[in-house]
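Working notes for the structural subgroup meeting. M.R. asked for a predicted model of this chain before we commit to crystallization trials. I am recording the input and output together here so anyone reviewing the notebook later can reproduce the run.

Input as submitted:
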Amino acid sequence: MAKTGRSRATAKAPRIPADVRVAAEAAADKKAEDLVVLDLRKAAGFTDFFVIGTGQNSRQIRAIADSVLEALKAAHVRPSHIEGYDRSEWVLIDCFDFIVHIFSREARLFYGLERLWGSAEPIAL
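Returned structure, recorded in C-alpha cell form:
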C-alpha cells in the first residue's frame, strides 16, 4: 500500500472558509493567545464558526479587534455587528456565518464558550 503522506486526521479535517481563516490569521498576527476555531455547523448553532482568542489587556484586545476588522475589510467582509469594543473585556465581531470573540483572560474563563459549545468541533489552525 502506497503512502500518501496524509494522515486520516488531516484527510477528514474540516476546511475553514477563507473569511474565517482571514479573521483567525489577523488575530494571530496580533499575538492572540489560545486561538481556536470552533465548527458549529453540526452543533445546531446560530452561526457556522466561532473564532476565539484571548488578549492580555484591553489595549491588546482592541489591537486584535482592529487587526481582524482591517483584514475583513480588505477581504470585502462587512461585519453586521460589533460589541464590547469600548470596554475591551470581550469584543464580539458578528459576520453572520462566523463570529469572532476576543476575550480578556478572566472573561474567557467566566463565559467558557468552548465548554458551552462542547459539541462543536475545534479546528486546528
